[in-house]
Amino acid sequence: MPFTTDAHKQFEKMTQTPVPRLICSLAGPTMVSMLISAAYNLADTYFVSQLGTSATGAVGVVFSLMAIIQAVGFMLGMGSGGVISRYLGEKRNPEATQAASTAFFTSIMVGFVITVSGLIFSDQLMRFLGATDTILPYAQSYAQYILYGAPIMGATFVMNNDLRAEGKAFFSMVGISIGCILNVILDPLMIFTFHLGIAGAAIATVIGQCVSFVILIFNYIRRKTIVGISFKHFSYKWSMHSEILKTGMPSFFRQGLASIATIALNVSARVYGDAAVAAMSIVGRAFFFLLAALLGFGQGFQPVAGYNYGAKCYSRLKQAFWFCVKVGFFGLLILCSLSFVFAPQIMMLFRRDDPQVIAIGTLAFRAQCAIMPLQTFVVISNMLFQSIGKPKQATWLAVLRQGLCFLPAILILPRFLGLLGVQISQPVADCFTFLIALFITLPFLRRLNGFIRSGESREADAGFVAEPLESTNTDREEP
Q1: What is the sign, positive or negative, of the torsion defined by CA atoms of 148, 149, 150, 155?
Q2: CA–CA dist 282, 236 (Å, integer)
Q3: What is the dihedral of CA 12, 15, 18, 21, to 10 degrees?
Q4: Which of 146, 314, 389, 410 shows a CA-CA span of 20 to 30 A to 18?
């Protein structure tokens, strides 16, 4: 397949546009879509919280199930997205289309497996996820419809990431945002007007996901994208699946461990009653809203990293990394400072009539806000390694926060500190995650500097157009 005019223009844009302007133009739509998605999560929790403390706890329990579905979707989506951006940077369009098609249809097949197995073992699954006897009925009602939508949700995550990977973040934003906004509108209608209770919230979620799916796939049907999706381009070769899985595995570990961490958190909080489970559920959703701004900004960085690494524009890659770290840190510092001050009011939005939920949640929320800005370096580093095809470093960073650091904290601290241990486990884990991330990322950046100083960084600042990497012969190992 020739390097088409659209692909050529996109290549020039990604390798020649000034880095700050390029990242901001790509990050704007991704931040909007992430914030709207996070706002939907908050709205979902808010409306369900009107049904009582046990119903609020059920949202936290099922959130870990949704994290499993997201883990699959993000693994295939971020995996194929990273492969796509690198292939487009190398001008290998046919392989990019293969990656998109393979990830899309794989996500649907895996989604069906999750649906069937989840419905068969519903009772055991909800108890395993941390449901108490009083939370269980609500959790089962909510989870049933979420499981029905698993294939669509997984495929939507894939298309969302693939569109961003080729620099079409606006299309991604429109599809995700409309689905989330519809979800928020449908929530009160389904829960209160049609008297469906917590099941209504789940139905609204699935309808919103279906609408997002249709809007996103419409871009591929109308050929508004550089890469395409078609079953004839589905690859049966292990090499393609391996490349997607290696690139996307950090996302799987990150999201999968987020699910395991939520389960461990629910189980630890369950000892202190439904109020503790509900409080930590609210904190998790509210905190994700803050994190969503950083994730959206970082997702604008990923295609820039993939394209420029593929084109060997290492100086631009380094500039993009530090730009995102600085902007992300100061942005989060402002958001977290405001949230720290108004933490009690934030908790009261959800359970005004339950002072125990407010007290537990306020302390936990403030502790997380105090440490959160440090996560900027961790998140951007993770996205850097994932986008440029460094699965080992990306995987280590992905497993740190919710795995290697959080799980020991949530298992050990409550034994010595009781409920306080549950509340501070995440910020303690975040401190250790940041310190370890420094040892993983800084050596790579120093190595990148060596390539820049030696003149092996091929920049596009003066109208340079990089050749495909296959045609480049060098004895020196890439960073």
Answers
A1: positive
A2: 43
A3: 80
A4: 389
Yes or no: say if 81 and 244 are a contact pair by the CB < 8 Å rule: no
pTM of the model: 0.74
Residue pair 299/384 in contact (Cβ under 8 Å)? The answer is no
Question: Quick one: tokens of 415?
Answer: 């034994």
Calculate the CA 264 to chain-centre distance: 20
Q: Where are the domains of the chain?
A: 17-230+237-465
pLDDT string in tens for the chain (479-residue length)? 444 566 778 778 888 888 899 998 888 888 887 888 777 777 888 899 889 888 988 988 898 899 889 889 989 998 998 899 888 878 888 899 999 999 999 999 999 999 999 999 999 999 998 888 899 999 999 999 999 999 999 999 999 989 988 878 788 889 988 998 999 999 999 999 999 999 999 999 999 999 999 999 999 999 888 899 999 999 988 999 999 998 888 778 877 887 888 889 988 999 999 999 999 989 988 888 888 888 888 888 988 898 888 788 888 999 999 999 999 999 999 999 999 999 999 999 888 888 999 999 999 999 999 999 999 999 999 999 988 888 888 888 888 888 889 999 999 999 999 999 999 999 999 999 999 999 999 999 998 888 788 766 666 443 444 444 343 333 345 56
Closest residue by Cα to residue 469 from 259, 344, 357, 312: 312
- Looking up tokens 């999201």 gives 255
Cα–Cα distance list, 102 to 30, 92, 234, 377, 460 (Å): 24, 16, 5, 32, 32
Q: Pinpoint the alpha helices (H) of 311-400.
A: 314-341, 343-351, 355-371, 375-387, 391-399
Distance separating alpha carbons of residues 245 and 456, to the nearest angstrom: 29
In whole angstroms, what separates CA 122 from the centre of its chain? 26
* Tokens, residue 71: 């883990």
